[in-house]
Amino acid sequence: MRLTVYFPDDSPTVHQWSGDRLSIGRLADNDLSIDDDSISSRHAEIVGAEGAAILRDLDSTNGTFLNRTPLTGEHPLSGGDEIYFGGVRTVFMESPDAEITETEAAVVAASDFVADAEGDGGRPDGFRPLSPLPPVAIKRDPLAMVAWGSLGLGVAAALYALVVVATS
Prior knowledge:
It is built from 2 helices and 11 strands; from the N terminus they run E-E-E-E-E-E-E-E-E-E-E-H-H. By secondary structure, it is α+β, with helices and mostly antiparallel strands. A hairpin with a 2-residue loop joins strand 10 (82-85) and strand 11.
């Protein structure tokens, strides 16, 4: 089995495994360690059972999404399934050495990590970061912007007047 991890600024990374369990999380002792703030220490796991792969969220803070739907409980995986661990997109492939099928390639191509016009960064519907830190919001007060602009024009006019008086 293989899992391709897509980071917004990096090239995709492919992780292959053949065991019966793959642990995913931010800590280095996971089988697949993903260093991203939206990933929990022990986020999720993929368990092999009777020739199938089962995805299970481990009560992660920011959730696990399977094909853009929040995962509840456990769910079987198929080749080409898109999985978000927090805000990190991955694509599951069933066979580590098989070529990518047309279906899998279409899923990967259709869902490449591209921020849409609203700037959501490609995150799934319903994704809410649950960080204890408040998001940084830039508030622009129009009145303050006019005041600073007027102040700048006043300073420029004063400098111009000084230059005119000094050269006369």
